[in-house]
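All the exercises in this workshop are built on plain-text protein records. A learned vocabulary of local backbone shapes supplies the integers on the structure line. Once this layout is familiar, the rest of the handout is easier to follow. An example says more than a description, so a record of this kind follows:
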Amino acid sequence: MPHGSCFLWDPWLTSLHTVSDLAVMVAYFSIPLLMMLNRQHIDAQIRPVLLLFAAFIFSCGIGHGIRVWNIWHANYWLEGWWSWVTAIVSLYTAWQLKELVPQLLNTHKDLVTTRKLAEQDPLTHLANRRGLESTLVALAYQSAAIVHTLILLDLDGFKAINDTYGHRAGDQLLQAVAEVLRQQIRSIDLAARIGGDEFAVLMVGCTPLEAQEKAETIRDQIQQIQLPDVPLHQVRSLVSASMGLSELTPTLGLTHSYQQADTALYIAKQSGKNQVKLALS
């Protein structure tokens, strides 16, 4: 007795194979349909290969439909010939993909590298403002029960170093501050240079009170910086940092948290600099 026809001895077995094959057929048909509906987003270079891939998927779907047909009609010559058609289409598609896939993977790698560079400060190799904002947006979709801390940091004597010893010394100071931040934060935290001599640190899962101790350590380490082009006594008298800390939660909103930290930083500056201030809740 033909293989498919034997299912008719058991109605439940017949139903199982019929429903499953029809479901697979619909799933296969949906992929070319989605490609067609989104064809305006497909690059012209890869369109021919995607059409071949769609033909292969469509052919597989028809094959599952024929399997359902053969439960009642047992036309296995039809199923065999269609399997041969599917094999030819799939082999030809694989041959075309042989050269295209490495190109697509390299393109994806280049895009990832470009995006990373776009979110990185070229001088300090910390994140830039765009990188910080991307991370803050990502945190906004996490649990509202988790509290984070945003630290805004401003160098007190940067302009004096720049004006007196030149931009090279200023760049050395920025790089030294970036190194302090890299050494002091955890791997899950983020340090960013957001412009000029302004930095930001995102302390993940830390309340402002918990992050305050780390901020004080960072402030102390910045005072220990040595610059090759600046006399040590001048570095000690000029280089310090003021910081403002605020709580960051999705419920408060990113703009609110940033403004709170900026206000706390302003208070630290007005109170004599070289201080760490918590935002008022």
About this structure: The mean pLDDT is 83. The radius of gyration is 31 Å.
